[in-house]
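Supplementary material to the annual report.
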Amino acid sequence: MPRARSGAATIEDVARLAGVSRAAVSKVLRNAYGVSPAMRERVGAAIQQLSYRPRVAARAMRGSTYTIGFEVPDLKNQFFSRVLSGASAALADTDYQMILAPANFNPFEPRAVEALLDHQVDGLIAIAPLVEPEWLDDVARRVPVVMFGRHDRSALYDSVESDDELGARRAMQHLFELGHESIVHLTIAESATRPYTPHGVRVRVYEEAMNESGRGALAEVLRVDIAQELAHETMLERLARRPLPTAIFAGHDELALGAMSAAVQSGVELSVIGYDGVAIAAHPLVSLSTMDQHGETMGARAIELLLERIKGRTTAVHEVVEPTLEHRSSTRAR
Amino acid sequence: MPRARSGAATIEDVARLAGVSRAAVSKVLRNAYGVSPAMRERVGAAIQQLSYRPRVAARAMRGSTYTIGFEVPDLKNQFFSRVLSGASAALADTDYQMILAPANFNPFEPRAVEALLDHQVDGLIAIAPLVEPEWLDDVARRVPVVMFGRHDRSALYDSVESDDELGARRAMQHLFELGHESIVHLTIAESATRPYTPHGVRVRVYEEAMNESGRGALAEVLRVDIAQELAHETMLERLARRPLPTAIFAGHDELALGAMSAAVQSGVELSVIGYDGVAIAAHPLVSLSTMDQHGETMGARAIELLLERIKGRTTAVHEVVEPTLEHRSSTRAR
DNA sequence: TTGTAAGCGTTATCAT
DNA sequence: ATGATAACGCTTACAA
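Predicted assembly:
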């Protein structure tokens, strides 16, 4: 079994070539206090010449890894791609590198987060709506944490969330203004919509909006286990029953796409509004109305907060980003 | 700056609790030879009790990290999501964990690959069509490598590639059979289509097919710097000029989607075939004909090859996966 | 079958 | 301003 990076230069080699101590090289590497310009110069040259790169593992043994971890539920969901893109861009000018751990729904998020902790990341961002708050607090006591999209708050970690209350209200308001009465909410499994999750909030606001506007009797929540194919199936089945809804408020864009495809296949005229703002929604063939969560912005903001925390901030910051309605042709007046 | 994982159990703690040596614990962890069932039992219990997890960094100092690295050009491209999904699934039952390094087109792929090497991954998979073969060989001498989608081969690393020659021929054949004469090829920047890259092959086959079929005079290659918006712009501009093509062969699905949206906007009747087989292509509102590369299969296969190499195989394996034509309504007889 | 001990490459403390 | 040195947690010869 070949040893990785065997033969590559170490800090020792650099020190020898520059004629200084290892400690000096280490200081130069970290821009630490107390290095003369001359020293910096010579060491820099040696580093260049040997194309030396510090081993993350050796660093981890003593201090930081300059690595931040990002846990995502799923790589296929376009919204998470947007978030990661924003995060990645925000990290570009820093010394930090991002490693990703996809949870793949599997035995849920903790396994992925633990994998990141095993790598001794200097901080971590997680999109983990379902892990227990106590467990999160434990993690946050060990390492700086920014939670993404959770509405419960802790003094121990920061959070970046979308204003789902506002977003869901606006989405419903939009459908009301178009004259829709019979609106079905398409969302994910019940077990995944606890009150403090984004989808939990959207479900609650949907129900409130229906009740408050006197449409309570027409309220209907349709659940789908995961992903798009199933949304398609579920909607197909629903569209075979009567009375038909005139509009769908989908908990996320993948669900909305599934609903649209079912509507096409059933030949039912249906207004559909999604949630997230994935790129394909703007395509003229799709033209899906959606609440744009500004994923890139949220991802970038999460990185900024995390870097602040790594630098030493200990008071919690909870950031709320406002979603924006994108009105396209999938929602029409009835 | 809080120390990560400070206070967490070490192998020492486990050894003490189980009343054995650190070496013994290490052997149990790695299922190494020479441990009695009794020992295994006691150590296992201690591990459980302390919820001990080995530090990747400490392991890296001596042996392996049980971590494999995956470099991808871009997380927003749905095809790469499919590949990563397949890879991730193939890794699920193993002791290995995957870390991802997105290159974001930025100073190109080497930076991302180096970041993975800094983490001393036990092996790496890279989608890096543009890095120099010599550089790749250097990397492959240090660590097991599987290259994804490159058609040049090396004795030093494995590769998983799609049969782009076949795929592009079939795509062109498909358009020919539908009666198209004036077919434009929409592809990425010239600098990114060297002969051994997937896109380079597709361009060449396109030109060959046009020439061989007597359509040489109609051949036209349209280049786009990156991604979908620009494909849209480029096609819009092209569709304003005469004579119009009747069909587009797009180098990948994002380009195809851009072409379709330009066609809609210009009101031009245009057949479009893409390449990759992203999920949205199957949506009835999009219904994009495409060459399905079976990304998940390719990703999973890359993992299998890499694990074999990590286990000790040193002869190179080059695997070719056959793409499949998905005929949908975006390509019609003219 | 089990234990002892050396060493991996870095950073931080403490002298100089 | 610079350098010597002691960790950090694990694996692996080698010894018992």
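The first strand of chain B starts at residue 67 and ends at 72.
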